[in-house]
Specification:
Elements (H helix, E strand, L loop, with lengths): L3 E18 L5 E21 L3 E6 L12 H13 L9 E8 L9 H16 L6 H11 L3 H6 L2 E6 L3 E4 L7 E7 L6 H16 L3 H6 L6 H9 L2 H7 L1 E2 L2 H7 L3 H10 L4 E4 L6 E5 L2 H13 L5 E7 L5 E2 L5
Helix pairs in contact: 1-2, 1-3, 5-9, 7-8
């Protein structure tokens, strides 16, 4: 069996509406996912046992044992595809070359899990189609299914129930400002719950009012392909919680808007800040100026939407 390499994108949340806590500890979400051209690359090759090696951005913070989401995805695929996997398949060595920062609100771990699913599906010749891979991905983690799908999509439940957005293939230009530090997703959700309890109490009626809904203005902006309209419609219920835990992000967001971004938002649970630019040239200018402003660790430019996890053709 030849090695299989898969390229997988980071995700942005153009909307992230968060409901009250559920009995299982999760929160119901309505979110608009958007895949952008910041990629990790994952290679699967036959091995005696399952293992993972990580290099690149934040590699020292990625677990290399059973807690690794990519290895969990491999185990989930093996369980779902058996007995379709060749008897001599053995284990698999997953190598992850990271460019998506770790614990940055960009779903890098989920992306790597999605890529591992796609790579092992190809490596083992299991023949599962995208609908089956999406089902397995949804069991592995909340954002894993979207990393398989890519593009722009509405996510519900924990984010695993996906509907592709009915929008033209407009190319949007983004600048991502990476913070000097990380945020724990559970910690940000816990901070949101504390902020809401402090602001509004915890009556049943108020909890019911917090049920998440899809933003009509955002979907209208996506259908129109109007970047200015989209910039005005970006929203994230987790942003106040992320800012309470990482106050320096306020300065980053303010700087991007002062420098002409059409919209600014904390990405997911943070601490990455995303900025929408009017054009590729404006994105280049914004990235250069932000980089020198001392308000973030580093910056990257990206476009979206882009496809989800995809096999990289072998070099001839």
């Amino acid at each position: 069996m030849a090695d299989v390499t898969v390229r997988v994108p980071a995700k942005l949340n153009l909307q992230l509406a968060v409901g009250p806590p559920r009995a299982d500890g999760y929160h119901d979400l309505v979110t608009v996912f958007h895949a952008v051209s910041l990629f990790d690359e994952i290679t699967a090759r036959p091995a005696e046992r399952d293992r993972v090696s990580v290099s690149g951005e934040g590699a020292d913070r990625v677990p290399d044992d059973g807690d690794n989401l990519a290895l969990r995805a491999v185990a989930a695929l093996r369980a779902a595809a058996d007995p379709g996997i060749p008897a001599d398949a053995g284990g698999v060595h997953i190598t992850i070359a990271k460019r998506i920062p770790v614990a940055a609100g960009l779903a890098g771990g989920s992306a790597d899990a999605a890529a591992a699913l796609v790579a092992c599906n190809e490596l083992w010749g299991t023949g599962l189609g995208q609908p089956q891979l999406l089902e397995i991905a949804a069991r592995v983690g909340s954002d894993v299914a979207f990393a398989v799908l890519g593009g722009t999509a509405v996510g519900r439940g924990r984010g695993e129930r996906l509907t592709p957005a009915l929008a033209p293939a407009t190319a949007y230009h983004w600048v991502l400002a990476f913070a000097d530090g990380q945020l724990s997703t559970p910690a940000v959700y816990a901070a949101l719950d504390r902020l809401r309890a402090a602001e509004a109490g915890a009556s049943a009626a108020k909890r019911k009012a917090a049920e998440p809904v899809l933003d009509v203005a955002l979907m209208s902006a996506l259908r129109s392909g109007d970047a200015r309209q989209l910039g005005r419609a970006l929203s994230n219920d987790l942003q106040p919680a992320a800012l309470s835990l990482f106050p320096a992000l306020r300065k980053t967001l303010a700087a991007g808007l002062e420098l002409g971004a059409l919209g600014a938002l904390v990405s997911g649970s943070g601490p990455t800040c995303l900025f929408l630019a009017a054009s590729a040239e404006r994105a280049l200018d914004l990235a250069a100026t932000l980089s020198g402003a001392g308000v973030c660790r580093s910056v990257a430019r990206a476009t979206g939407p882009v496809p989800g996890a995809a096999v990289v053709p072998a070099a001839r």
